[in-house]
Design a protein that fits this description.
Layout: E1 5-9, E2 16-20, E3 25-29, H1 32-38, E4 44-49, E5 53-57, E6 61-63, E7 69-73, E8 80-85, E9 90-94, E10 109-111, E11 127-128
Parallel strand pairs: 3-10, 10-11
Antiparallel strand pairs: 1-2, 2-5, 3-4, 4-9, 6-7, 7-8, 8-9
Length: 133
């Protein structure tokens, strides 16, 4: 996967992006902010170094639900796209926005499992953390 190229975008197609190489990691976040932003009970992400990420087209909207990160989305269709920690050298990309999210490996870990919906259980073989890891 070191030479892989993955593209993705928002629902309306206004925002397009490209990543190269392998992600730093893949994960699931059950925090209530991610759940509310995406409308999904288990939002999944692939994190890439900024040097392996390119915004190809479109403009982003942003929202700060915390004092340490910005959640970015398409202002036209509302698709949740990116999570960026202030000052970090990586971007976490919503896995469902990739053209073929099944190309990515099983998540390495799941965080904020204390907020997981009760009918969901641990994913076998994936490290679980009740809060942030």
């Amino acid at each position: 996967m070191s030479d892989a190229i993955h593209e993705g975008g928002c629902l309306c197609g206004s925002v397009r992006y490209r990543t190269t190489g392998a992600p730093n990691d893949t994960n699931i976040c059950y925090c209530t902010q991610c759940q509310k932003q995406t409308g999904a009970p288990l939002p999944a992400f692939a994190s890439f170094p900024l040097t392996q990420f390119e915004l190809i087209s479109g403009e982003l909207g942003g929202y700060r639900a915390s004092d340490f990160a910005t959640r970015e989305f398409c202002p036209k269709c509302g698709s949740a796209l990116f999570w960026r920690r202030d000052g970090a050298d990586y971007v976490s990309i919503c896995l469902g926005g990739f053209d073929d999210p099944s190309d990515f490996p099983t998540p390495k870990y799941e965080i904020w499992t204390d907020h997981r919906i009760k009918w969901l259980t641990n994913i076998p073989g994936v490290d679980s953390y009740p809060g942030d890891n």
